[in-house]
Amino acid sequence: MNEEHLKKYQDQPLQLILNKLYKFKYQPIQEDNPVLVYIGKEGNWHQFAKLTDPATVWSELLDSDLHLIEEYQNNIGELTKEEPDFVFCESLGINIEV
User: Fold this and answer.
1) Rounded to an integer, what is the distance from CA 29 to the centroid of its chain?
2) Distant-in-sequence, close-in-space partners of 35: CB < 8 Å, separation ≥ 6
3) Residues 39, 13, 32, 58: what is their CA dihedral angle, to the nearest 10 degrees?
């Protein structure tokens, strides 16, 4: 990615929403690249947990790295309340917007 392209994305930071789902761009969803839940900011770090383990911080990103992620939408539409990942998060008291 050239410097001009990178600056364009860094100038338009992603507006993160608590408990919303995100993923790393251009990467398939798999064990080492899971769907992420935004769980807040600690100091300079935006913290994300795996959707399947929302109580544990799995990744931290600085503002300058937010261009690496995007909102997650699966191929069959938005996450529904019937999906196992939603039920799992709800059981832990994590409210995920659907």
Assistant:
1) 12
2) 21, 22, 23, 29, 50, 51, 72, 85
3) -30
> So where are the chain's domains?
3-91
- Within 15-76, residue ranges assigned H as helices are none
* Tens-digit pLDDT profile for residues 4-53: 655 555 556 688 999 888 999 988 777 777 889 999 999 999 999 998 88
Evaluate whether 21 touches 96 at the Cβ level (below 8 Å). Answer: yes
DSSP label at 6?
A: H
- Residue 77 pairs with which residues in a beta bridge? 74
Q: Is 87 left (phi over 0), alpha (psi -120 to 50) or beta?
A: alpha
Residue the block writes with tokens 């001009």:
4
